[in-house]
From TrEMBL:
Record organism: Fulvimarina pelagi HTCC2506
InterPro entries hit by this protein: Class_I_gatase-like (IPR029062), DJ-1/PfpI (IPR002818), Homeodomain-like_sf (IPR009057), HTH_AraC (IPR018060), HTH_AraC-typ_CS (IPR018062), INH-QAR (IPR052158), Tscrpt_reg_AraC-type_HTH (IPR020449)
Coiled-coil region list: none
Domain HTH araC/xylS-type: residue ranges: 227-325
SUPFAM superfamilies, per the entry: Class I glutamine amidotransferase-like, Homeodomain-like
Name of protein: Transcriptional regulator, AraC family, putative
Length: 334
């Protein structure tokens, strides 16, 4: 990736350093840097006048992204005080260790220096594993919400918003939300017009707020409140939230939430929630060797008989029948 950060006599208003996890997400890095690049200069000249950026690494070897494209560092692990923000770009969760000891130590130096740490994509996992998100709200993608909750049961994940600014910790779900986060920082340190320019050159609409709901293919509703309610449901499959609690979190009454669901989806919130939990149970029956009892509990059903009855009502088969079909596919000779 081409990168230019020539020295400037005047310190840029926004200075960002990047640390890349092994198998990092290329789109998260490129969207963030391009937003800075376009805001940092007039036109499309890419001079780091109002914003500057560095890709850091402890060694000069190329850094491989999850799609196989590699980039090279622009500097080593320089003094954290050179930056307003240090951004950790995460990537594949099952690709081994995401960062090495040198970067882990550098993150501690940033923390001690009071530099704001930013985790994008699965960068939130990196910061959490480093012990740097204790007591903080952490934004994670709906796609990785269950992975996060399983690994960090004592933390406060939020799979509903695009990004969360929690003082000197900022976390972002990734995807297109990275551009929104970068524009948010550009607006804060440079100006709103610079942020708009960046997004419009990138053929993106005006910046979304961090509190806006993450888009989700599982929700057919165009109402953001319904989408956020469904994200809450999907983030609490094993420990179902009362529908009234979901309504309160959305600043709605129970009746208002009920009306929204029936208007947009044709179903009550409780019915939608039950289907989400049953879909989760069916995936586990078809893809894991867990017992039916364990799957019922993991899907938020404390009564096995009620689980079996609800499952048969929705799918026309019992959980044991679905499990038997899986076992027949796995061992067709048996």
């Amino acid at each position: 990736m081409h990168h230019a950060t020539t020295a400037s006599a005047v310190r840029p208003a926004l200075r960002v350093g990047f640390l890349l996890a092994h198998n990092f997400t290329l789109s998260a890095l490129s969207l963030f840097i391009d937003t800075l690049r376009l805001a940092g200069d007039d036109g499309d000249r890419s001079r780091p006048i109002r914003a500057s950026w560095h890709i850091m690494a402890p060694r000069p070897e190329p850094l491989r992204s999850s799609c196989g494209v590699s980039v090279t560092r622009t500097t080593g692990l320089i003094d954290p005080n050179n930056f307003d923000y240090v951004v950790v770009v995460g990537g594949l969760l099952d690709g081994g260790e995401q960062i090495d000891r040198a970067i882990l130590g550098y993150l501690d130096r940033c923390d001690q220096a009071g530099i704001t740490l930013v985790g994008v994509c699965t960068g939130s996992f990196v910061l959490s594993r480093a012990g740097l998100m204790k007591g903080r709200r952490t934004c994670v993608s709906w796609f990785h919400a269950e992975d996060f909750a399983a690994e960090f049961p004592d933390q406060m994940p939020d799979a509903e918003q695009l990004f969360i600014d929690d003082g000197n910790r900022i976390t972002c779900a990734g995807g297109g939300g990275v551009a929104d986060l970068a524009a948010y920082l550009v607006s804060r340190h440079i100006n709103v017009d610079a942020a708009k320019k960046s997004l419009h050159v990138l053929q993106l609409q005006d910046a979304r707020q961090g509190s806006e709901a993450q888009p989700h293919a599982g929700s057919a509703s165009t109402d953001s409140r319904v989408r956020r309610a469904i994200l809450m449901m999907e983030s609490h499959v094993g420990d179902p939230l009362p529908v009234d609690t979901i309504a309160i979190r959305l600043d709605l009454s129970g009746r208002q939430l009920e009306r929204l669901f029936r208007t947009t989806l044709g179903q009550a919130p409780a019915a939608v929630y039950r289907k989400i939990r049953l879909d989760h149970a069916r995936r586990l029956l078809e893809t894991t060797g867990k017992s039916v009892t364990d799957i019922a509990i993991e899907s938020g059903f404390c009564d096995g008989a009620h689980f079996a009855q609800s499952f048969r009502t929705v799918f026309g088969q019992s959980p044991k029948q679905v499990r038997a079909q899986r076992e027949k596919r796995v061992d067709p000779v048996a």
